[in-house]
Specification:
disordered N terminus, mainly alpha, single chain, 11 helices
């Protein structure tokens, strides 16, 4: 039986408190059941509110998921930036790849949001979400720049995105439990091999 004091307490929650409650419940559900287990009804049940309450705080389910993804990307960026102390450029990029792999392996179901969630055809990712991705790409571009000094900015940008796409593809297979259908080698070995092979193919930095 729901007590009157509980109803009053819920009614007095500040919007930001309710927002965090919803996001934590959504995160817990993804960690427990994966993306397919995340619904407005299940989130509402978990926080003991009506489903309609969620849409007073978030526009829709997509916004909840994108917010979780953006926080995940913030955490990843912090992990990648922790490799900046490596003095050797090539080793730093390998360290970036290793940090990426480690991060994706820590909570596979939560990480799978980045590859499993799709916006409908009539929707685009909001600017605040795109900004998170741009910051990640900038981190990779900065790491690549010493190896591509003298190259066009567009070439550095493209190379950063190829590295991201390749690493993300490898880790996505791993978190989905399908990497063994491609190779029997460990995830970190494949990631290292991809990065080292890709770096070998980069044009040499111009000598000035």
């Amino acid at each position: 039986m729901v007590r009157k004091t509980d109803i009053i307490k819920r009614a007095k929650r500040a919007p930001e408190e309710l927002r965090e409650l919803i996001l934590q419940a959504a995160k817990d559900l993804v960690e427990e059941r994966g993306l397919e287990g995340l619904s407005a009804r299940e989130i509402a049940r978990k926080i003991e509110y009506s489903p309609g309450t969620l849409y007073n705080v978030f526009k829709d389910r997509d916004e909840i998921i994108l917010t979780l993804e953006s926080r995940l990307l913030d955490e990843l960026l912090g992990r990648l930036k922790s490799t900046q102390g490596c003095p050797d450029t090539r080793k730093r990029i390998v360290c970036l790849a290793n940090a990426y792999v480690e991060f994706s392996s820590e909570n596979p179901k939560l990480w799978s949001l980045l590859s499993g969630h799709r916006l409908s055809d009539d929707k685009e990712a909001p600017d605040w979400y795109q900004l998170k991705m741009d910051k990640l790409m900038q981190c990779l571009e900065e790491a690549l720049l010493p190896l591509m000094e003298g190259s066009d900015k567009s070439d550095v940008s493209r190379s950063a995105r190829v590295l991201w796409a390749g690493l993300h593809g490898i880790t996505s297979l791993a978190v989905a439990g399908k990497l063994s259908t491609v190779s029997s080698e460990p995830l970190n070995h494949l990631a290292d091999n991809f990065v080292e092979t890709y770096l070998e193919g980069l044009p040499p930095a111009s000598q000035t």
